[in-house]
Amino acid sequence: MFINYIWGGVLHKEMINSSIHHISENENVIIQLLQTIGVPRIEAISIVCLLNGEELTSQDIELKMGLRQSEVSVAMSSLYERGWIEQRSEKTTMDRGRPTKYYHLKVALQHIVQDHETQILERNREQIDIIDRLRELCRGDEMSGFNTSEPVSSYHDEDLKDQS
Prior knowledge:
Helix content is 55%, strand content 16%. By secondary structure, the chain is α+β, with helices and mostly antiparallel strands. The protein has two domains: 106 residues, Orthogonal Bundle (Arc Repressor Mutant, subunit A), CATH 1.10.10; 42 residues, no CATH class. A hairpin with a 2-residue loop joins strand 1 and strand 2. The termini are far apart.
């Protein structure tokens, strides 16, 4: 079985264990679109895994989606810090060892998309502000006799002629 995902702006196709949960076409599209708007791959996969409202352990997600424990742990920490998931710990045995962490999505997918939309719009506003500032500077240069329509090399050529 293969999974398609986007990482670094490039579509990847990776063979995965056939015992892994089958990703529906809709889930695959959600993963790809989340990645396109900046959600890291493992986080996008984890979000999709939790979309049905089930409470899952890291190991459930690992087995279901064919991920490594360390990848899921990092993704869960990030999702928890953003306030998108809740986690609870439960000691499953009387033996020594760490308690098992259970995770569930506490916000709708729409909320996650809205958060990213807000970040993208803010980033775009900042870039537009920079462009506006550059335009102001260009206008000021035109008033001072600096011709922004000429190639930069012509200024250097004139400077060299003046020095000789």
